[in-house]
Design brief:
Helix content is 29%, strand content 26%. A hairpin with a 5-residue loop joins strand 17 and strand 18. The chain starts with 5 loop residues before the first helix and ends with a helix. Bound molecules: ligand MTE, hypoxanthine (HPA) and dioxothiomolybdenum(VI) ion. The site of ligand MTE has 21 residues, from helix 15 and helix 17.
Length: 753
């Protein structure tokens, strides 16, 4: 696999935050946090901890010179708890010491006294008590009430989906050092450098221009570092600022798992109405999102659940209502798919129930209701270049779905104790930040006098290959060797006011900005050529593979020579450009608009085998046809699809985040929290690129890829469910994910209704 970083990664030469050289005298910090989920702080006793040799300072809320506030969308979250704690892991103090070990030991010596308050962990209970982070929101299309009256069949049900730990290989962390004039520089493992900068400036009470944030690369983010990298950056900066020394803060794995937010668990209700031909006429859903103890990104995540409530189907009458429920868990946050997967799981459950009750094949039902060109989503946008039907027919054809169905049936009639199940999962995912203003990015490009090129953008490399894609954009504009092009760290002093690398939008937004900046320089270079060669019309000048052409004819100029001449003629070899996505808007007062630049489409066929004695299962295969647009980098894109699929299967089948009623996490290590490994991953993952599908709204006709494939994993849940149904047809199975082996075993042998 060729990616900018592959060779360095394999040799262990790539630097992550904790590998970067730090000055001698660097101090180490450790977070001391609430051991209970809800209570008043009666007493904080630091005396024993402070006495420990090597401890330099213990910082609490009262040491914050600015505002004790880290909330992004809603300002409802403190950096350090002051009077009350709201979740297990709520930071209260930061110990700074000569070594990490001393800091950790000292943290254990801090004594707290609390007066316990009631703990809520269940979102429906929170909603019943009025613990909502914002007013419920409803998306409406047509009139469901009238439509249900005309339906031949109406079904209702309840759906539960669980949380998910991001498990980025690199845990959260930051390194900060003071700079002259009362500022700080922070090296952070963040998807959102500007978020870290903004939060730190607020905490320190200094202007943003005094806070510089730099990001080399991340060992994964998956949404977990979109907003939740900020507190650690701010804490390291606060300690550096107060002590006037460099400070590093890196969370140990178990602490990271315990105290940071995860994918939001949801509890949902649905009602679906169909006519006897299997056309879905009406759909209602209510989503109770477990937001945790503060808003974080929950309201935006919940909004995307509403956007994707009908997945890939056209339903003329829809009413979807979303509740953002405050509980005493760590604030949950962005996770690949950003609420979309939770919404799609509910509609897929509803269609499954309808098919089972009506005695129809679910795949036929799905197919009958797929989106067509020009169909309206509940949020008012209409499909354009809709490719879901094409993906569906291609998948049926290329993978011979009929034959797969037959061989599964044949297997099931021959085998008693092993059963196979098959499911199809269509995915339609809106591409753009749902908050319109976030759809902007900038790039800064320099060409040095030796012809080497340096590119800075807002994009953060976290394994998804965005750097390699941006290099290809530069290569496309200048037609030069890829080795000339270097992507610099993401830095708030070089590229300001960055949106986080999220919403699968980094390559689109930063790719367009980079293209624009390069084209500004190219235009100047053409003028230099015209001047040098006495050509009147500079628009016939091109660069092709390092050589300069005029009217298709080779000139004596090479790229290197041209750069030399431009420099000697005092022509600027640097450019900055800004890009914002055109024609998108959304009116929250009406819940209508055109929030997405375009949609990503695809269809996955998932097959599973269940061992009906043990309740264990294997995912035999995942076969996908996906619309990648005209890929900027097919190998990177395929890798994104494969990784997303396995991560999605993990969420739906084996990854189980468990808290007890006291809000204590029971699964804070890989011994208790099982994730897919290479042995579990399906042996057979096939990803076909939908042919002839250029995307007019992406750079060089490409399409975003980061998140959409995760949702194929939902197919694994239904494939397992279908296998269970083969073993015990009459069982009424609940719609509850993850489908762990325990749940499979219960479903096989207990009469659940
Ligand atoms: N792939 C890797 N290897 N590591 C990651 O952290 N994050 C995912 C996805 N793929 C992630 C990843 C998420 S949540 C998003 S939003 C996109 O990458 C962001 O990058 P992009 O906008 O460049 O696609
Ligand atoms: N995706 C990811 N992150 C976001 C979004 C989104 O749509 N909106 C705001 N932050
Ligand atoms: Mo991705 S969840 O938008 O970082």
């Amino acid at each position: 696999m060729k990616n900018y970083d592959s060779i360095k990664h394999v040799r262990g030469e790539s630097l992550f935050l904790d590998d970067q050289l730090t000055p001698t005298g660097t101090l180490f910090a450790y977070v001391s946090y609430s051991p209970i989920a809800h209570g008043k702080i009666k007493k904080i006793d630091l005396s024993e901890a402070e006495k420990l040799q090597g401890v330099k300072a213990i910082i609490t809320a009262k040491d914050i010179p600015g505002e004790n506030q880290i909330g992004g969308i809603i300002q409802d979250e403190d950096l350090f708890a002051e009077n009350e704690v709201h979740f297990v892991g709520h930071p209260i103090a930061l110990v700074v010491a000569e070594t990490q070990l001393i800091a950790h030991e000292a943290a254990d010596l801090i004594k707290y006294e609390f007066r316990k308050l009631p703990v809520i962990t269940d979102p429906r209970k929170a909603a019943a008590l009025g613990e909502l982070i914002q007013k419920p929101r409803t998306f409406n299309l047509g009139n469901t009430e009238k439509a249900f009256n005309k339906c031949d069949f109406v079904f209702e049900g309840k759906v539960e989906s669980g949380g998910q730990e991001h498990l980025y290989l690199e845990t959260q962390g930051a390194f900060a050092h003071p700079v002259e004039g009362g500022g700080v520089k922070i090296y952070s493992s963040t998807q959102g450098p500007t978020a870290v900068q903004r939060v730190t400036s607020r905490i320190l009470g200094i202007p943003m221009h005094k806070v510089e944030v730099d990001v080399l690369r991340l060992g994964g983010g998956f949404g977990g570092k979109e907003d939740q990298a900020s507190p650690w950056g701010a804490m390291a900066a606060l300690a550096a600022f107060k002590l006037n020394e460099p400070v590093k803060l890196v969370l140990p794995r178990q602490v990271d798992i315990k105290i940071t937010g995860k994918r939001h668990p949801y509890s949902s209700d649905f009602k679906i109405g169909l006519n006897k031909d299997g056309k879905i006429l009406a759909y209602e859903a209510s989503y109770y999102q477990n937001a945790g103890a503060a808003a974080d990104l929950s309201t935006a995540v919940l909004e995307r659940t509403l956007f994707h409530c009908t997945n890939s189907y056209f339903i003329p009458n829809v009413k979807a209502t979303a509740y953002c429920c405050r509980t005493n868990l760590p604030p949950n946050t962005a996770f690949r798919g950003f609420g979309g997967p939770q919404g799609m799981f509910v509609i897929e459950s509803a269609i499954t129930k309808a098919a089972e009750e009506m005695g129809l094949n679910k795949i036929d039902l799905q197919k009958r209701n797929l989106l067509d060109e020009g169909d309206e989503f509940p949020y008012g946008q209409k499909t354009e270049h809709c490719r879901i039907k094409r993906c569906f027919t291609e998948a049926e054809k290329k993978y011979d779905l009929k034959k797969m169905q037959k061989s599964v049936s044949a297997f099931n009639s021959k085998n008693k104790l092993f059963k196979k199940g098959l499911a199809v999962m269509p995915v339609t995912f809106g591409i753009s930040f749902t908050s319109t203003f976030m759809n902007q990015a900038s790039a800064l490009v320099h060409i040095y006098t030796d012809g080497s090129i340096s590119v800075s953008t807002a994009a953060v490399e976290m394994g998804q290959g965005v750097n390699e894609k941006i290099r290809n954009v530069v290569k496309n504009v200048f037609s030069v060797d890829l080795n000339r092009i270097k992507i610099e760290t993401t830095n708030t002093s070089r590229v300001a006011n960055t949106s986080p690398t999220a919403a699968s939008k980094a390559a689109d937004l930063n790719g367009f900005a980079t293209k624009k900046a390069c084209e500004i320089i190219l235009e100047r270079l053409k003028k230099v050529v015209a001047n040098e060669l006495n050509i009147k019309q500079y628009n016939n000048i091109t660069i092709q593979q390092e050589t300069i052409y005029n009217k298709g004819k080779k000139t004596k100029l090479s790229f290197d020579k041209l750069i030399q001449i431009a420099y000697l003629n005092r022509v600027s070899l640097s450019a900055q450009a800004h890009h914002s996505t055109p024609n998108i808007h959304f009116d929250k007062s009406k819940e209508k608009g055109q929030p997405f630049a375009y949609h990503a489409y695809g269809v996955g066929i998932v097959q599973a085998t269940v061992d009906c004695i043990r309740g264990t299962y294997e995912i035999d295969s995942v076969k996908v046809v996906h619309d990648f647009g005209k890929s900027l980098h097919p190998i990177v894109d395929k890798g994104q699809a494969e990784g997303g699929i396995v991560q999605g299967i993990g969420w739906m089948t084996m990854e189980e985040v468990l808290y007890n009623d006291e809000g204590q996490l029971l699964t804070n290590a890989l011994s208790t929290y099982k994730v897919p490994d290479i042995h579990f991953a399906p042996n057979d993952i096939q990803v076909l690129f939908l042919e002839n599908s250029p995307n007019p709204y992406g750079p060089y006709q490409s399409k975003a890829i980061g998140e959409p494939p995760l949702m194929y994993g939902i197919g694994a849940y239904f494939a397992i469910r279908n296998a269970i149904k083969e073993f015990k047809r009459k069982n009424k199975l609940p719609f509850k994910a993850p489908m762990t082996p325990e749940n499979v075993l219960l479903s096989l042998y207990k009469n659940i209704s």
